[in-house]
Amino acid sequence: MIVLGVESSCDETACAVIAVDDNNIKILSNVVASQEIHAIYGGVVPEIASREHIRRICPVAESALGRAGLSIGDIDAIAWTKGPGLIGALLVGSLFAKGVAVAARKPQVAVSHLWGHLLTALLAEPPVTVPYLCLLASGGHTIICVVEDLYRVRVLGESLDDAAGEAFDKCAVILGLSYPGGPQIDRLARKGNPYAFALPLPQPRGLNFSFSGLKTAFKNIVEKGKKQEPNFVERHLHDLAASIQKAIVDHLINRLENAYKQTGVCNIAIVGGVAANSYFREQLQALASRYHWSVHMPPLPYCTDNAVMIALGGYFKLKAGLTTPPDEIPTPRYPLPNI
Ligand code: KG4
Ligand code: ZN
Known about the structure:
- By secondary structure, the chain is of the alpha/beta class.
- The protein has helices at about 45-70, 85-105, 115-120, 165-175, 180-190, 210-230, 230-265, 280-290, 310-320; strands at about 1-5, 10-20, 25-35, 75-85, 110, 130-135, 140-150, 150-160, 265-270, 295.
- Helix 7 packs parallel to helix 8 (about 280-290).
- The radius of gyration is 20 Å and the shape is globular.
- The chain starts with a strand and ends in a 20-residue tail after the last helix.
- The mean pLDDT is about 95.
- The structure holds 5'-O-[(R)-(carboxyoxy)(hydroxy)phosphoryl]adenosine and zinc ion.
- 5'-O-[(R)-(carboxyoxy)(hydroxy)phosphoryl]adenosine binds near residues 165, 169, 180 and 276.
- 5'-O-[(R)-(carboxyoxy)(hydroxy)phosphoryl]adenosine binds near residues 10, 139, 166, 181 and 304.
């Protein structure tokens, strides 16, 4: 089955083509157009995101088909993101996908963005097998769950305030870095000492996450430092980046450890934009040998938002006979365990 995926939930306009044969996944193309324009505003502006999606969706889809060496007639189905996300942005992708589906007489299928992220663990080397304990850490969500089988997700905990990626981005703003700050903190931290500035380990109830206290503690360190030393941030930039990165990653890993102890599931996957963080990947790999975990991390292009994950969701839904009615609409809130 050949599936065209369309993703437009936030600030990435993305289309991808996959071919799946007996669960053997082949990625034929993966085109992601990131909307850099939001950097000047320090975050995503929803109305601008919608307009950018309108501008880019056709060329991105054409490019995805072209790189796959296919035309629309070769596609078996079109998958689009149902939510969660910015409603205007979602509408552009869904209407485009449904329009193409009607014109080309192909089935269309709506897919959860969050479930799509969970499925990217199948793209890890080695690919994950069910059941797996999955930590989804992105700009909008931080969720820990057990993927019992690909269609059944049991949520164990989630963030009570900011998402992990949001914490990276907000702390980057405190350091005067532009949006999105996560990748910049990752890069700067490589030359820094993660133990230079002590930050607390958040301990919200159960297997939940909380990042707002960390952000405040970090802000206090920076403000106090600036009072004592005017160019405090410039002088300690690498150490500050390494310290906040360690604090965020320690919290994520602590929850994974606790979730493992509670469930006994030792297939561990991390997905979402924050799963691209190099320190997180290293630390997780280091811990894996202690607990005999089998760790599965998708290649970097499939951690951040992409349409391969939506195409994958489309494939698995159609395979199970889960069809989408023609009048299905996207929704800004579409929490797991919805798929
Ligand atoms: O999954 P994603 O592309 O979009 C959402 O679904 O939200 O995640 C984007 C988030 C941003 O907050 C970004 O700063 C963060 O992932 N991110 C990173 C890294 N790459 C992306 N955070 C830390 N280190 C990275 N290397
Ligand atoms: Zn995402």
